[in-house]
């Protein structure tokens, strides 16, 4: 998809389709009004006839009008002007894309940047447009022998009222496109079945990204290398699997090497059967999505490579397959982590924290500015927060506040849960330094408390994306979250 910025009179643009907004309260946005006047009030007539109220979700396609060069005009409902916010704007963009797709249009000029939204600049509007269009274009087809044809969207322009906004709009389109592509990569990896998307496959994807981009250095540690480092907690998770575990390290360098990096760490369980603490059968297929944290790290690194910002970011993925088997870890087994803390594995289904803790110790060597881990860690997080927000837990109030705000700004929200000392008690073990489960209460918090024992040396936040990383039911599939949040955070902090 090609994005560009245009300025000038909307009536003079030759395009298969011009998209303009209509408010519900009878006033017209600037560009719509200008078009209406040139076109002998054809829009006002449509509204007066009651053919379009302007509610969000409503659209109307008109053929060529006198005095207007565009072949078609798509009127898009934008709701009430005073109610508009970024969330509603994204909704309007989704409706626009879907209508254009319904009419098989591959090219359009979008005149929606003129809609004023409180506290939203043109850069953000352009970014949301590109991100929405790119991510709506994604279809999973890889393992289907035939897939329905669809006209790929070729060219999208946004028309501005003020040519001074050109640079900002172009920058927004560029980052939106990179974020959209990053989300789509994360979704594709999440959607791939676990017999294709193994830890080795994830390692190869990372290496491929590194080969394509000079600014990205990729290293994939083998089990033997991890054993030397003492990562016995991570290694214990893959014991029952025929697939070797890996630790993937991706270093994106856009700034001076002396500048401290922000580090992101993803849980990459390519399939989670629960191990010997076997999960029930119903819906177990969804545990192929248990690497969505890792996928979001790969998607984010890919987006950074596309945008080339002047920052340093290190992405780390701890990847294993959690299977039962003759060599599998058993409940009650005790392992020594890289940090030398011993762990009693009371439940082999609490495996995410076991791979993450060693990765979190490993990243100390980078002297990170901050570390954010991303994991489909607990079913309890879905119970607590559903699928609207991701869980956020942190040992640093300022980092938590920043991530919260980034979540709102990028429409990829998170909500903080307390990471208080009192909860640590639930992780007591009679036989090791710490147990890997904390009982039935506050499961998301005790999982984060476990991780907190390994993150004392830096500012750290944990994102539990169990409820937000994929959709269930008829629309089953990975969402690409929280790539938008991570990009927002990394680019602005
Ligand atoms: N990957 C799961 C968490 C999960 C479950 C995410 C369902 C999304 C949907 C994780 O490894 C797990 O099994 N967690 C256990 C922890 C428990 C054994 C303490 C859980 O949430 O039940
Ligand atoms: Mn599990
Ligand atoms: Zn898991």
Question: What would you note in describing this structure?
Answer:
Helices cover 34% and strands 21% of the residues. With 493 residues, it is α/β, with parallel strands linked by helices. It folds into two domains: 2-159, 3-Layer(aba) Sandwich (Leucine Aminopeptidase, subunit E, domain 1), CATH 3.40.220; 180-492, Zn peptidases (Aminopeptidase), CATH 3.40.630.10. An eight-stranded mixed beta sheet has the order 7-8-10-9-13-17-14-15, sandwiched between helices. It is elongated. The model has no long low-confidence stretch (mean pLDDT 97). Bound molecules: ligand BES, manganese (II) ion (MN) and zinc ion.
What kind of sheet is the major sheet?
8 strands, mixed
CATH topology of the largest domain: Aminopeptidase
Bound molecules: ligand BES, manganese (II) ion, zinc ion
Alpha plus pi helix count? 14
- Outline type: elongated
Strand order of the largest sheet: 7-8-10-9-13-17-14-15
Please identify the structural class as seen in this structure: alpha/beta
Total strand segments: 19
Our measurement of the CA-to-CA distance between the termini, rounded to an integer number of angstroms, reads 29 Å
Percent range for helical residues?
Answer: 25-40%
CATH superfamily name of the largest domain? Answer: Zn peptidases
Summarize model confidence as the mean pLDDT: 97
Proper CATH architecture of the largest domain:
3-Layer(aba) Sandwich
Q: List unreliable stretches of 5+ residues.
A: none
Number of discrete domains? 2
How many whole angstroms does the radius of gyration measure? 25 Å
β-strand amount: 15-25%
Oligomeric assembly: single chain
């Amino acid at each position: 998809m090609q994005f560009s910025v245009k300025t000038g009179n909307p009536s003079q643009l030759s395009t298969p389709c011009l998209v303009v907004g209509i408010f519900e309260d009878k006033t017209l946005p600037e560009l719509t009004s200008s078009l209406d006047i040139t076109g002998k009030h054809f829009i006002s007539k449509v509204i007066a006839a009651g053919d379009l109220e302007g509610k969000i979700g409503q659209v109307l396609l008109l053929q060529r009008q006198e005095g207007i060069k565009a072949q078609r005009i798509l009127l898009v409902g934008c709701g009430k002007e005073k109610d508009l916010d970024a969330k509603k704007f994204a909704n309007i963009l989704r409706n626009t894309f879907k209508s254009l797709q319904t009419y098989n249009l591959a090219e359009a000029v979008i005149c929606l940047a003129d809609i004023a939204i409180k506290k939203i600049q043109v850069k953000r509007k352009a970014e949301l447009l590109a991100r929405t269009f790119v991510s709506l274009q994604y279809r999973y087809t890889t393992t289907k022998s035939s897939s329905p044809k669809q006209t790929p969207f070729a060219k999208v322009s946004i028309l501005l009222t003020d040519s001074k906004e050109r640079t900002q709009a172009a920058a927004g389109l560029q980052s939106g496109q990179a974020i959209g592509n990053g989300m789509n990569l994360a979704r594709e990896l999440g959607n791939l079945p676990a017999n294709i998307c193994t830890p080795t496959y994830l390692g190869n994807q990372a290496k491929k990204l590194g080969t394509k981009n000079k600014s990205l250095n990729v290293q994939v540690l083998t089990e033997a290398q991890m054993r030397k480092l003492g990562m016995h907690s991570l290694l214990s998770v893959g014991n029952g699997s025929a697939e070797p575990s890996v630790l993937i390290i991706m270093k994106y360098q856009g700034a001076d090497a002396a500048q401290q990096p922000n580090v992101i760490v993803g849980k990459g369980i390519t399939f989670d059967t629960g191990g010997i603490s076997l999960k029930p059968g119903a819906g177990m297929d969804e545990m192929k999505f248990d690497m969505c944290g890792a996928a979001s790290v790969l998607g984010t690194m890919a987006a950074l490579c596309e945008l080339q910002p002047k920052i340093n970011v290190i992405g780390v993925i701890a990847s294993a397959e959690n299977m039962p088997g003759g060599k599998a870890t058993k409940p009650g087994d005790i392992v020594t982590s890289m940090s030398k803390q011993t762990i009693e594995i009371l439940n082999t289904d609490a495996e995410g924290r076991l791979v993450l803790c060693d990765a979190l110790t490993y990243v100390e060597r980078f002297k990170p500015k901050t570390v954010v881990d991303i994991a489909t860690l607990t079913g309890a997080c879905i119970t607590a927060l559903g699928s609207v927000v991701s869980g956020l837990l942190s040992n640093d109030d300022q980092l938590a506040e920043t991530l919260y705000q980034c979540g709102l700004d990028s429409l990829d929200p998170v909500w903080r849960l307390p990471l208080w000392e009192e909860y640590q008690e639930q992780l007591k073990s009679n036989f090791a330094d710490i147990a890997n489960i904390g009982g039935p209460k506050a499961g998301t918090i005790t999982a984060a408390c476990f991780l907190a024992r390994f993150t004392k040396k830096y500012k750290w936040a944990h994102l539990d994306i169990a409820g937000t990383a994929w959709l269930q039911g008829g629309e089953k599939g990975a969402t690409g979250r929280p790539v938008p949040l991570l990009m927002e955070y990394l680019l602005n902090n």
